[in-house]
User: Fold this.
Amino acid sequence: MGALQSAAGQPGYVDLAEKTGFSFEQIQVLHKRFKQLSHNEETLRRDHFSGIPDLACNPIRAQIIEAFFDRRNYHQNGEGMVQEIGFEEFLVVMSHFRPPSLHMTEEQRENVRREKLRFLFNMHDTDNDGTITLEEYRHVVEELLSRSGALGKETAKSIADAAMLEVASISMGHMEPDEFYEGITFEHFLKLLNGFEIESKMNIRFLNMDTSTLCK
Amino acid sequence: MDLTISTFRGALLVVFTASCLLHGSRGEIPPKATGGVTLLPPVKPEVPHAYPNEEKSNLPVFTMDYPRIQIPFEITLWVLLASFAKIGFHVYHKITVWVPESCLLISIGLIVGGIMHSVHEEPPAVLSSNVFFLYMLPPIVLDSGYFMPTRPFFENIGTVLWFAVVGTLWNSIGIGMSLFAICQIEAFGVQDLNLQENLLFATIISAVDPVAVLSVFEDVSVNEQLYIVVFGECLFNDAVTVVLYNMFSFVADMPEVEPVDVFLGVARFFVVGLGGMGFGILFGFVAAFTTRFTSRVREIEPLFIFMYSYLAYLVAELFAISSIMAIVTCALTMKYYVEENVSQRSCTTIRHVVKMLGSISETLIFFFLGVVTITTEHEWNWGYILFTLLFAFVWRGLGVLVLTQIINPFRTIPFNMKDQFGLAYGGLRGAISFALAFTLPNTIGRKPLFVTATIAVILFTVFLQGISIRPLIEFINVRRTNRNLDTINVEIHCRLMDHTIAGIEDLCGQWSHFYWKDKFMKFNNRILRKILIKDSRAESSIVALYKKLELQNAMEILDTVSGDISAAPSIVSLYEEKKSSAKPKKKFLASDLKNMHDILSKNMYKIRQRTVAYTGKHALPNDSHSREILIRRHASIRRSLRPQSFQTSAVPKSHKYFSLPAGKSLDSKLFPPERLSFTDDQETMSEVAYPSRRSRFGQPARSSSRAMMPLRRLDTLKEVPSLDVLNEGRSESGGKGRGMSRTNSSYSESHVPAPRRHFNASADNNNGSADDFRNVHQEEEEEEQEQPSSPPPGWVAERSDNSTTQNPLLRRPQWNPRK
Assistant:
C-alpha cells in the first residue's frame, strides 16, 4: 500500500477530485482499476472493456461500454464518440454514479436527478438526435431480455411497444388521431420517470478501500 | 354453578350491549338478540341437578349444555366483538386517519374492561397461558413475513438486522441498567428488584411494534428505506426480544450469574436466531416443493401454506429456537415460489386468509390490552413507571442516533436527521411487549409492577406517539417515495438500473450488493426454480409486470361486468318506466334477466380468454407484427372510408342502444323500434351495453373508434384480430359519436330489423347527434385528405385519447398506466 500515501500528492488528483467529487482514496482505487483494465496504458479502448469477465454476462454490456465512449457524458454539449478514453473521462463517467450527499437542497437534488436521467437518456438515445425512437427503445428492451431465455425478440418488441404506448399516453395525453409519437424527448423522459427515484437508485457506493485484487 | 352461569350471562349481556353501543347500528342487533335468547334459559338444564330424583327417565324436550360449548363460544363472541369494533372505526374514515386503529381498539377494550370490572367479571383467560404464543402470535408474524416487500428488504437487510439486533440489545441493556440504577434510590421503594429482573423487564419493553406507525408511513408514503427499516426492525426485533426474554427469564431465576453463562447466552443467541432461520428456509422450500404437485387439488393449495408455516413455527418452538424467525423466513422463502405454482385463485385466497388471520389476532390483542388494563390488579409506583417511560424514550432516541452514525457509512443512501427522527419516534410498543409481560413467570415477585409499567409504556407510546406521529412526519417533511409505480417504463428502467449498476460495479472491480444478487439470481434460475416450480421458465420481471397489469385490467373489466349483472335489470326497468309506449315489459324483464345473466357469464369467460390471448400475445412470438398491422389497418380503413363515408356517417349515435340486449336470442320485438330513438341517458346505457357488446365481439374483431364503416369492412378487421385489442380499451371508451362503429357492427350481426331511416329521424331530432354526425363527416374528410400524404412512419398515436376528453364519464376501466 505504498502507492496510497503517494496518492494524495499526485498532481492530477486535486483537479480530478474537484471535478468529479470523488475523494482521493476513491480516485486512487479507481485509478488502480483503470490501469489494471488498460494493462498499464494511458488510455482505455473498447476491447479492454469486453475483456472483463464479470461484465460478459451483463445483458446491457454494450450500452454500458458505449456510455464510456460517449462525449455527451463528459461535457454538457459534447457530441459524438471517441475511440479511446483517458483516466479523466473514465472518472467523469463514473461520477454519474456517485450517491447523493446527505445534505442537499431541493434544487441540488433536482440537478442530480436531471444529470442522472440525462445519462440514462443518452444511453438509450444512440443516434444522438434528442429523442428515443421506438426502434431505440425496442433495442433497449431486447437487450434487457436477451438473457431471459425463452422470451424471444418479439416479446421484447411488443413490450417495448406497450411501454411506448404508455409513454405516449403519459406525455402527450391528448393526441390527434393521425399524430405519431415520434419518440421520447428528454422532457418526456423526465416526466415519465417522475416517480422513479433515480437519485436513490442510480448510485454505487464507491469504496475507499482497494478490493480490486479480490475480483478480476 | 348456578351463580357462575348467571354471572356469565351478565357478562354476555354486557358484551352485547357493549357491541351494540360500539357501532350503534340497528342492523347488527338481531343476531345478538337471538344469541341472548338462546342463553336466557341456562337455568333449565341445571334443574335436574337441583332436584336429581325428579323426572329422570323422561326424554328431555329441551336441553342445554353450555359448558360443552363454552370455550369456542366465548372465543367466537370475542372475535366477533373485536371485528365489530373494527367495522365501527371504518364507518367514519376520518377517525382512523387521525387516530391509529390500535388506539381505538385499546379504547374500546378499556370501555369493555370497565363494564366487566363493574360487574366483577373475570377477564378472558387467553393471555395467561401459551395461547398467545401458540395461537395469537403466528398469524401476526406470518402476515408481516408474507407481505414483506422483498426487494427493498434485501436491499436494506444489513440496516434492518443492525437495528433489530443491536438496537434491541442496546435498548434492553440501556434501559435495564438505568432502571437498576433507579432502583437503588430509596425513595422509590423498589430496592428489591435486582439487575436480572430489570433487564428482563427492559427486554419486554424494548420490543417495538410499529403497526400503527407503518400505516401512517404508508399513508404519508415516506421513503422506502425508512419504511422498510421500521418494518423489518419490528419483525426481527420480535425474534430478538423473545430470545432475550427467554434468556433473561432463565437467568432471573438463577441466584447468581457466572461469566460462563454470559458466553453461553451469546452462543445460544446465535443458535436460536440462525436455527430459526434454518428451519424457516427448510420448511419454505418444502412448502414450495409441495405446491409443485397440487395442480390437481387446487382447493387445498392454500392449506399447505398455512400448515407448513405453522409447522415451522411449532417445530422451532419445540426446540426452543426463535419461532418468529422461523415463520418469517418460511413465509419469505416460499412466497416467491408458491405464488408461481398455485393458481390465481389460491393465491388470492392465501393472501386474504393471511391478512384476515393477522388482523384478527392483532385486533384481539389490542382489545384485550384494553380489557386487561382495567381488570388486572396493578401495582402503581410513580417513580419506577415514570422513569421507565423516560428511559424507554431516551434510549430509543439515543440508540437510533448512535446506531445510524455507525451504519450510515455503509449505506448507499444514508439516513438524514429527519429519517432518524422518524425511526426513533416510530418506536411504539405493542402486542409483543404486552403478551410477554403477561406471560412473566409468577416467581418474579414484582410481576404486577412490571405488568403495570409495561401497560403504561404501551398506552403512552401508542396514544401519544401514535397520534402525533402523522402531523410530525408531515411537518418535518420526511423524504417521500412514490411507492405505487406500476408502469412498464418504470419497471424497464428498474431492471436497466440493476444491470447498469452491476455492470459499473464490475467495471470498478468491487463486490457489493448487486454482485451477490446477481449470483443468487443465477443460482435461483438454474437450480431452485427447476426444482421448486412446476413450469419453470425464467420470467423477466418486466414480462411479469406486464402480465400483472393485464390481469388487473381483466379483473377490472370483470368487476364491471359482474356489477352490471345486477345493475342491468334495474336500469332497463328504469327505461321501461320512462317509455310510455313500451310494449311487453314484463316479459322482457323476466326472460331477459336470465338471458342477460347467461350472456354476461359467458362474456366473462370470453373476457378471460381474450385477456389471456392478449397477454399471450406478448409472450408468443408469432403475433409480432401488430404494429405493422395496425398501420396497415389504418390505411385500409381510410381506403374503405372513401367511397361510403357519407352513408356510414348517417348512422346516429342512438345506436348504442342497440347493443343493450346483446343476445342473439333477443329478438327485435323485445326491443321495440321506438325505443331506439330514445337517446337520452346514453352514458348510463352504454355502461350496461358495454359488456354485451363485448360478448358479441368475443372475438377481438372490434372496430376502432375511428372507423365509421359499413358492414363489409368488418371482414378487414377480422383479419387482424390481435391488434384491435391494443387500442380496444381506448376506442371502447369513445364518446357518443365514436360509439357508432360498434353499434354499426352490432347492427350488422344481430340482424335486428331496425330501419335505418329511423335513426336518421332520431338524428335529426337530436341536435347533439346531428353535430356529431357533422363532425364525423368532417373528420372523415380530413382523414381522406391526409391519407395520401402520410403513410405512418413508425408510431401511430392511438386516437382514443381524445375520446376521453370528449366524454370522461364514459371511460370504462382500462389499462391506465398512470395508476
Q: What stands out?
A: Chain A is about 55% helix and 5% strand. The longest strand of chain A covers residues 44-45. Residues 7 and 28 of chain A are 6 Å apart (CA to CA). Confidence is low (pLDDT under 50) at residues 1-8, 212-216 of chain A.
